[in-house]
Design a protein that fits this description.
By secondary structure, the protein is mostly helical. Helix 1 crosses helix 2.
């Protein structure tokens, strides 16, 4: 992942949700940080956005959780 994508994950994901009850490091916290970073950061390239969405879904998969692909995720990953 690029530096820009990592910063989007940290700033738009973790920083924006620092007061929630989900503990730091939980798969849902990491999923949300990557997904929201991809959604909210306006200056990402298409590749950065796809990397963040892929990271979010990979974290859910690693936790054994199936998350349905959203329209936003499909557009970021496949362009439609």
């Amino acid at each position: 992942m690029s530096v820009r994508a990592v910063l989007a994950h940290e700033y738009y994901g973790h920083r924006a949700n620092r007061t929630t009850s989900i503990r730091k490091g939980h798969w849902l916290d990491e999923f949300r940080a990557s997904y929201r970073g991809a959604q909210k950061c306006s200056n990402l390239t298409d590749e950065d956005r796809a990397d963040l969405v892929r990271d979010a879904y990979d974290r859910a998969k690693e936790a054994g959780v199936t998350v349905k692909l959203t329209k936003f995720a499909r557009r970021a990953l496949y362009g439609f």
